[in-house]
Amino acid sequence: MKTESIAFAVAGMCFGVILGWVLATQEASRSSTAPPAPAAAAPPAAAPAAANQPPPLDQARVQQLQAAIQKDPNNASNYAQLGNIYFDAQQWPGAIDSYERSLKLNPKDPDVSTDLGVSYYYTNRTDEALAQFERSLALNPRHTKTLLNKGIVLAFGKEDLKAAADEWKKVVEIAPDSPEGQAARRALEGVAAAHAQQGTTNQ
User: Fold this and answer.
1) Would residue 12 count as lying in a domain?
2) Residue among 151, 160, 156 nearest 184 (CA)
3) Entry pTM
């Protein structure tokens, strides 16, 4: 997996603040007897690095890969690399199309499957993202990038902190010293801080 996952876009942010927002939204939904308002947009840190402009699309590399695909249309790796180029430029439709084509040729690649799930999430296709992550985990139940991203999508896409924390705990158990494990640990610390702050506010 060449591209950055969702979690790395938010790993440097304050998880306590972000997850506190999610927790507050959950609390408001539970306490309100009126029909819930339309879901608020995800906080800025849950979206693709809003503060940083994506790099421009590498047109030369795109043309090289498209030429390679024309010569060898059954090469899954070329489609995956093309998906990475579109992903890095945050051009999600191109990334999704390329990753889907790659997986048709090689459906047993959990990295590409997870990148596709991330791309789905960034186009507001949360349920499809989670379903894709499940396909990745069916291939490799210990795939930490998938578990990490699944937690992020559960937290920000479904506002389910408990389920998100369960996924992050798995990452810490599997690879505590990896970048994914460190990001998951920060996320869990953020959940704890959010709950603590919420408890103080409700007193």
Assistant:
1) yes
2) 151
3) 0.77
